[in-house]
Specification:
By secondary structure, this protein is mostly helical. It has seven helices and no strands. It folds into two domains: 3-58; 67-120. Helix content is 63%, strand content 0%. The chain starts with a helix and ends in a 14-residue tail after the last helix.
Length: 134
């Protein structure tokens, strides 16, 4: 997206946030810790992090949603809800390492059974990481 197109999108984004502010104004300094609505809290974040929210327009490597990040942590939260917690820090770290390995394999198109088999053989899949500075 060109700079002019991004500027138009940014202006439109700010107009939408401004419309929301009519019904949910930002808490003013000196108002203390009065409770805000969830909508006002969301508008605060959308306003404060506007360039981060719109980053996908400029950089095609930035995903439109955070669905992948949420999917990556979902199984850990399910485990936590079912078991209550991990018994040890080491157990939590091992679980996170295994989940991270499988998630990386899946994202890079590798068969998970084959990746686990190769791991047991001592030949784990190594993620392709670009060299620093590229």
């Amino acid at each position: 997206m060109g700079e002019e197109d991004f500027h138009r999108a940014h202006v439109a984004y700010k107009d939408i946030v401004r419309q929301g502010r009519r019904d949910h104004p930002r808490r003013q300094p000196g108002q203390g810790r009065t409770r805000q609505s969830k909508a006002a809290n969301l508008l605060d974040r959308l306003e404060d992090y506007d360039l981060s929210v719109l980053a996908f327009l400029v950089d095609p490597n930035v995903p439109f949603t955070n669905n992948q990040g949420e999917q990556d942590i979902r199984m850990i939260k399910v485990k936590q809800k079912i078991a209550g917690c991990f018994r040890t820090l080491t157990g939590a770290q091992v679980c996170a390492r295994i989940r991270g390995y499988l998630s990386t394999c899946r994202k890079q198109g590798h068969d998970l059974w084959d990746a686990c088999y190769q791991l047991v053989l001592g030949q784990p899949f190594m993620s392709s990481v670009p060299a620093a500075g590229l």
